[in-house]
Amino acid sequence: MADALRRLSAEVERLNARVDGLDSDLTTGLRRGVSVMEWNARRQLTFVQKARESSNRRTRAESVRQQVLARIRQAARQREPILAGPWTGEVGFELLYWAPFVRWAIERFGIEPARVTLLSRGGTASWYGVDGVRYLDVLDLCSPDEFRRRTMKERKQRTLRAFDRHLVRQARERIGRRAALLHPAMMYALFEPFWTLQTSLRWVQDFTRAQRIVPPAIEGLRLPQPYVAVRFYFSKCFRETPGNHERVRSLIRRLAAETNVVVLGSGVALDEHREIGPANAGPHDDGRHDRVHTVEHLMRPETNLAVQTAVIAGAQAFIGTYGGFSYLAPLCGVNSVALYSQRNYYPHHLDFARHVFQAVGGGSLSVIGVSA
Fold first, then answer.
1. Among 66, 115, 239, 363, which is disulfide-ready with 335 (CB 3.0 to 4.6 Å)?
2. From CA 299, how far away is CA 278, in angstroms rounded?
3. Is the same domain home to 186 and 299?
């Protein structure tokens, strides 16, 4: 069809040339008719080109789907241990996409959980919610400084990077035998059509299993009741400015006037997001208030996310920077208020997150600009 349209366009050009040789009074109608023919021809040619591009994208997506399914199927049939990870990326992507993808793979291919070893960081075993799997923490295999240095340039694990291979070798030594690999690159390749707005969220739904998070038990965790959990850090949508510093201090001051506040922080810098911890977010200059609490004494790199999950799950509500932690709260059944100062986040991630929260009977997520 595209060839036919090109021939039609060429014929239009020839007609234009012939019309130029006629008397101007006789050519007005002819020019109008030729112009309409030319416009229709170009519109149809554009339509065909877009349809062909769309078909090519669907073909590529289907090819990737078949490759990913084949690799997981092969790992499932081999009966050897399976290493799921390493996950070294963002909290939000692990919660919304990677952990549900791993659950789906285990369920879809009938993989015995005892064969699976999860490899993530910060103690996130509860996020996967699969009984019987083994969990290894990346921060037991490397220092926080090495982790930050080797993941800073690229957080998205679209390929098996040198650092990933290093962690896989160490994990296999811990397992004590060869293990098949379920790497995040599979998920990134499979979900790319959704993230680039080429497919609907149904595409991701077909390869994920949404589930509420049951928080881990943390020894020594004692918190006042009731309380609101607060977790702020600076990011692309919540820039580090004097105004945002003051907004956080003011917010905690107002919350503390009404209830207990537990201010969270990881206690370790693993990425580019600088945390607004208790010392510089408190209601007073010294960061102390009888209703403002922390759990800093429990924070260790390899378990910091487990501790924060338990704290958030027990809160009346969560308030913090828009991002991964604002997703964690609803997945634990806690309503979340997320703030931003620049609206440069991706709405399709938020849309998918809200769909997941509703599907699992989780909490709500309200995203609010600080100007409000």
1. 363
2. 13
3. no
